[in-house]
Amino acid sequence: MPTIVGERRWLVLFVLCIAVFLVVVDNTIVNVALPTLSKDLHASNSSLQWIVDGYSLPFAGLLLAGGGLSDRLGRKRVLQIALVCFALFSLLAAFSHNVQTLLTARALMGAAAAFIFPATLSILTVVFNDPRGRAKAFGIWGATTGMAIALGPIAGGALITHFWYGSIFLVNVPIAMVGLVAVNVVVPESTSPQRLPVDYGGLIFGTAGITTLTLAIIEGPSWGWRSSPTLVMFGATVMLLTGFARYELARSGPLLDVRIFMNRTFSASAGAMATNFFCLFGFIFLVTQYFQLVRGYSALSAGVHTLPFAFAVMVTTPLAASAALRLGPRVVVPLGLAITAGALTWMSTLAAGAAYTGPILGSMLTLATGFSLVNAPSVAATMESLMPEQIGAGAAGNETTRELGGTMGVAIIGSVFASLFGPGVQQALRPFLGHGLTVAQLHAAQASMQAARATVAHLPLAVQGSVDARVTAAFMNGLHRGCLVAASTAIVVAIAVYVYLPAHTPRGAHQLVPG
After folding, report:
1. Model confidence over 126-148: pLDDT tens digits?
2. Domains 1-199+251-255 and 263-515 are alike in CATH topology
3. SS3 call for 256
4. Tens digit of pLDDT for each residue in 206-255?
5. Where are the domains of the chain?
6. pTM for the full model?
7. Positive or negative torsion for Cα 34, 278, 400, 147
8. How far apart are CA 56 and CA 79, in angstroms?
9. What is the spatial distance between Cα 408 and Cα 212, in angstroms, rounded to a whole number?
10. Contact at 8 Å (CB) between 59 and 89?
11. What CATH number labels 263-515?
12. What would be the CATH architecture of the domain defined by 1-199+251-255?
């Protein structure tokens, strides 16, 4: 690949950020449209869950394939093909007239996204070959990721308010086409310096293993974490990923050199990033419900109220990358996780009617600072520790841990929330069994805040206020406990990263052994 210097490499970064924004924002934009989809497509609760998860499952499962194939076939070429596919599948989703077609389109969009994300990170790594420029680039790239996650609900709310549900998918098409033309004009082609054949065995084992793990995490709360299907899925995951590791170790040109996980810098940084997104996705899952179901905000208003988080990430992420250059990721990354834990602990004390401009806004800005201190330095540390031929696969492994962390955040924190909310609602409503409330209604009320409020509305008017207050208390109890679980996880990982991460990031993945 020709050396890119001066202003053109920053133009390359801008183009790559367009592709990153497109992929990440689609992971969250659909959430605010779920009530509309339920009404217009007559989608069940299970179908609504899969409209969201149907994107994440192939996205996580195919990231390794995306990274490995981009290394071999050309990162620019794979990125361009994936952008075209993403636009076509977005068109299919926009004009879906039934749940089955929409689910298929969402799954195909997730599959295309899996080939976009690692390609952008790989190209970024080879274009910015000096530490200071690369740190700034990773800071901007990381800020784009964080902003896209936070802006998704705002964009979705605005589109749903003024247009039909298909608009949240149709908007992807012009963005993808602009990105495609820009990539063709601006971005240079690059491949792994080693010409390796396609590792079909690694593709099969790796994709199956990560997909099975993601499915187990997604369905764990509904199946039950100790249920037979969940345990079978986790058992299959262990066998598939063990087989993948052994197969890759025996090959001279593996899809993913699994020895990179023996690199302390790579594994510690990847673990920190997974925890970072575990906390962030758990926070988004809780706070969007809090804004809409407790505060009574509309979908658009709920998104707007998270906007300060996005702006804070945009400002602090480049600063965090510069701080990591001066102090080292061993200081900055654990500090970021500790700040994240502090923000989540603060959130665990919020009252239902807390002032937005006080504790709510303050805790969100603190969380944004912690997120930024972890995100860009962790990405930079993982990619700095790789040899040139490992960049694509390493980027895919990096993003796989990120996606799994976010998925686990929603699943585990959501499960913690439900374990307290359901019994709390049951306790509030049980006295009315046989007095206008049936067992079926009591069971249905425990499923969600909306269902609980609908059930309360059928009670005698004189008791609705007090019962609704107890339901709200059950919601806040679940939110508080979920925040504390996320905070505890961040603290534990912060300590582990500080102990395990080397004081200085090694240059190149030739250092593949612990030490």
Report:
1. 787 777 777 777 777 777 776 77
2. yes
3. coil
4. 888 888 887 887 777 778 888 898 899 999 999 998 988 888 888 777 77
5. 1-199+251-255, 263-515
6. 0.79
7. positive
8. 19
9. 13
10. no
11. 1.20.1250.20
12. Up-down Bundle (1.20)
